[in-house]
Amino acid sequence: MSKISKFFKGGGSAASKGRGGPSPQEALARLRETEEMLSKKQEYLETRIERELAVARQHGTKNKRAALQALKRKKRYEKQLNQIDGTLSTIEFQREALENSHTNTEVLKNMGYAAQAMKKVHENMDLNKIDDLMQDITEQQDVAQEISDAISSRATFGDEFDEDELMAELEELEQEELNKGMRDVRLPSVPSTSLPSRPGKMPACHFTFLKIKPCSSSRKRAEDEDEMKKLAAWAS
């Protein structure tokens, strides 16, 4: 019995038979073994084809019978090689389909495990309790925000005093300071010399309101200018 017959006719293990069929992993392993065996058969046939071509070239027209027999064998090997190519294509397609099916099965199995885990997690959860919890969290956040606003707001200590009274008191203080400044101002002395009755030469030191003419003494002039500055400040 050929190896291919063993694979497809009772080649499975006892454990696989007991389960009613091989597992995807076992089937994939068998398919890969079959592909490996057919690949080796391909290499063998390719070697035989090259050998028969060499024999046909060697005999040529000198020994037509031997050359033709070599070409016939070559044709048979090529036919077997084409058949193996088709078989390998079929096995490759089946293996890929089985791999995809196995992958999908594992994905669905894992998704089922995840769904069961989520169900188990949610068993002890009550939607009403969750709503109450979220409401409590919202209320506590509002309280925390109010506390933060109260702490960060500007302090208003002393706002119980009347602002109008404070302004009146401030104006009174400013008036007192102004009056004090006016008392400290020393007005210039009135000149003792009488004014002339007719035009003529003015005295050496003659004052007018807010204006002073220069005197002969420099020190006197500086004192007069200082007095006039104070008088001008008071008048303004």
What does this structure look like?
Helices cover 73% and strands 2% of the residues. The protein is built from seven helices and two strands, in the order ααααααββα. Strand 1 and strand 2 form a beta hairpin. The chain is an all-alpha fold. It starts with a helix and ends with a helix. The longest helix has 59 residues, at 64-122. The chain has a domain at 24-125: Helix Hairpins (Orthogonal Bundle), CATH 1.10.287.1060. It is elongated, with a radius of gyration of 62 Å. Residues 220-230 have a biased composition (Basic and acidic residues). Belongs to the SNF7 family.
> How much strand?
under 5%
* CATH H-level superfamily of the domain at 24-125: ESAT-6-like
Q: Trace the largest sheet across and list its strands.
A: 1-2
Mean pLDDT: 77
Question: What's the number of extended β-strand segments?
Answer: 2
Q: In terms of structural class, how would the helical and strand content be classed? A: mainly alpha
CATH class of the domain at 24-125: Mainly Alpha
Spans of 5+ residues with little confidence (pLDDT < 50)? 1-17, 200-215
**What's the quaternary structure here?**
single chain
> Which shape, going by the Cα principal axes?
elongated
How much helical structure, as a percent, in the residues? over 70%
Family: Belongs to the SNF7 family.
InterPro entries: Snf7_fam
Protein name: CHM4C protein
GO cellular component, one term: late endosome membrane
